[in-house]
Hints:
With 327 residues, the chain is of the alpha/beta class. It has ten helices and twelve strands.
Amino acid sequence: MADPILELENLKVYFNVGGGFLKKKDVVKAVDGISLKIYPGETFGLVGESGCGKSTTGRAIVKINQPTEGRILVNGEDITKIKGTDLKQFKQDVQMIFQDPYASLNPRMTVGEIIKEPMDIHGIYNTNEEKEKRVRELLELVGLKPDHIRRYPHEFSGGQRQRIGIARTLALNPKFIVCDEPISALDVSIQAQVINLLEKIQAEMGISYLFIAHDLSMVKHISDRIGVMYLGNLVEVGDSDELYNNPLHPYTKALLSSVPIPDPKVAKSRERIVLQGELPSPINPPSGCVFRTRCPKAMEKCSQCKPELKKVKDRMVACFLYDGDKE
């Protein structure tokens, strides 16, 4: 197997909140020690409830959020503290597609200026003619017309704006892209088009994706492997089909039981797992296993020790239920 293009080692991202005069600040443990590997040409899906740390993980990878602890390796190089020329090269190789196509584009710039801006900053083309030619090529690649180059973002629909954002992301020919819920702000009829576009780009350019999303059905469609996050922790990682067909962690089972099924007969016969209790605060997470306060199979051991992500059968699982099943 090829070496991973991206590797996270015990990544932690904490934020200080609140506080004041003579009052200690609270610490939000947004990402609390996750480790994973993503390989060249692979799409790794990251799923979980809102607030579980998915987007924070993606933003840490592209250096929007600074890691509190741990390492982020890109092609074997630790990028957590790089600066200067090395940082500029890193920004070429690793890019991000943002969630909101309305907020991520500058309304005062034309489409051509938006896509060309990264080229200007990194100086990857010598003349304006070369840059404009590349902009037109990118517009065609994402399914827009070359004459859209003179228009402004407000003249486009949400789906078209997201295509413009994707074109801007591709301007530097990146090797790895963090897709931070790129379809959640779009109409259902447009979502499949954007997913098909991302798959087409990956097939042509060999780019690796970290695909962050809420839509579990869509994640299964696009991902080779999937990681399930809960309260800043990875609880299960495995092959997309295997994880969906045979989830092991109690949280993964509950999460997948909520996925809508278009066949009414199948949906009626399926058992829905409803988790009890509220999602704990990342400021004061439970001791031991962070899922134990909502887990129907919690044991005494779960409150005493935090389960590590270990190999169980064909995947990685963080759960004491499978301590005797490791291979």
